[in-house]
Amino acid sequence: MQRPDFDDIFMELAVNLSKRSHCIKAHVGAVLTKETRIISIGYNGPPAGTHNCDEEWPHTGCARDRKGSCSLAIHAEENAILYAAKNGATVEGTTLYVTLSPCLPCARIIFSMKIAKVIYLHSYAEYKGIDVDEGLAFLEKFGVQVQQYTGKFVQPYQPITT
């Protein structure tokens, strides 16, 4: 049996977490880790106790703010960081796995919380149709390691039956 790398395990978990999102626009998952341990998880969506956009507004999603972004959404990386902080976990020096590279406001939070590395699956710039990943550029400029995930998820062992 081939043993998966931790990068594969954590990114696969982020992908699976993204499936929990109630957002109409995008499903994003995040896993915050320290070495080989999970510190916190998150996915994008409205704050707990408000509305689930896909249930409340199944055709349009929540109202948009002046910039065209969801008015209720908390991004996946924000949710992971907030949950860790709420529960007293130290996030300094951690690695964040996220299915969509951080936007600029999330990058500022990541830097401020002293997260050491971000591994992302897809480009936020490509998703938004813009020419530069501002969040990644910010993180790189200020010394946070940034890496696009290029691994592959390992399929679970399947015994041979005769």
From TrEMBL:
Q: CMP/dCMP-type deaminase domain: which residues?
A: 5-141
What PROSITE patterns does the record tag this protein with? CYT_DCMP_DEAMINASES_1, CYT_DCMP_DEAMINASES_2
Among its keywords, does the record have Lipid biosynthesis?
Answer: no
InterPro entries given for it? APOBEC/CMP_deaminase_Zn-bd (IPR016192), CMP_dCMP_dom (IPR002125), Cytidine_deaminase-like (IPR016193), dCMP_deaminase-rel (IPR015517), Deoxycytidylate_deaminase_dom (IPR035105)
Q: Which cofactor does it need?
A: Zn(2+)
Q: Name one GO cellular component term.
A: cytoplasm
GO molecular function terms attached to this record: dCMP deaminase activity; zinc ion binding
Q: Which UniProt keywords apply?
A: Hydrolase, Metal-binding, Zinc
Annotated family: Belongs to the cytidine and deoxycytidylate deaminase family.
Protein name (database record):
dCMP deaminase family protein
**From which source organism is this entry?**
Rhodocytophaga rosea
